[in-house]
Amino acid sequence: EPEVTQTPSHQVTQMGQEVILRCVPISNHLYFYWYRQILGQKVEFLVSFYNNEISEKSEIFDDQFSVERPDGSNFTLKIRSTKLEDSAMYFCASRRDSGNTIYFGEGSWLTVV
Amino acid sequence: KNQVEQSPQSLIILEGKNCTLQCNYTVSPFSNLRWYKQDTGRGPVSLTIMTFSENTKSNGRYTATLDADTKQSSLHITASQLSDSASYICVVSAFAAGNKLTFGGGTRVLVKP
Asked: Å from B17 to nearest chain A CA?
C-alpha cells in the first residue's frame, strides 16, 4: 500500500536553531498537510497546501513556519527559530482529492532543548 | 468554533469483549467524519470515513455509526484483541479550503488479556 514517508523520525535541536522536516506524500496526491501533536494532547492542524500554495493555515502557523514543495515530490516544513514549545510530533498527510481518505506519515518527533 | 468531543477519555476492556466509543461534534458545514486508530508514537491510520448520507460503515471488527441530525458518531469494536490497544480519534471535516480536519482528543483503549 502506498504511504507517506517522513524524515527524520526524531530530531533534537537547540532552541533558536532552524529545523526542516521532510515529507514525501503519496505520488498521485494533490492535497498536502502538516499537523502536530504535543505529547499527551490532541492533533492540531498547522497548514494545508494545494496547487503549489498554502490554502489554509492555523493560528499556530506563524511567521516562524513555512512550507515548500521544491521539486514535485518533497513537501517540507521549516521552523526558522525553534522554541521549547515547538517540541512535538509533526505529521505530514496527503490525499488525492476532496473527500478521499487522508493518509498520515509516521511522524517526525522534534525535541527542542 | 468547530469542536469535536470524545468520550470516554480512556477505557480498559478484557480481550474478547466489545466496546463503544462516542464522538460529538459541532463542525459546520459538515463534510465527512472519520475514525482513526493511532498507536503510541505512530501516525493515525484511517478506519472509516462517512459522509452526511451514511449511517453506518464497517471495517472488519470496527463499525462506525453517524447521526448527522444529532451530530453524533460512535465506533464499536467487536471481539476486542490485544492489538486493538491504541487511541481512537474522531476527526470531522468541514467544507472549506483544503477540507481542514478537526480532531477529537481521542479515546485511549487498553485491551487486557
From this structure: 27
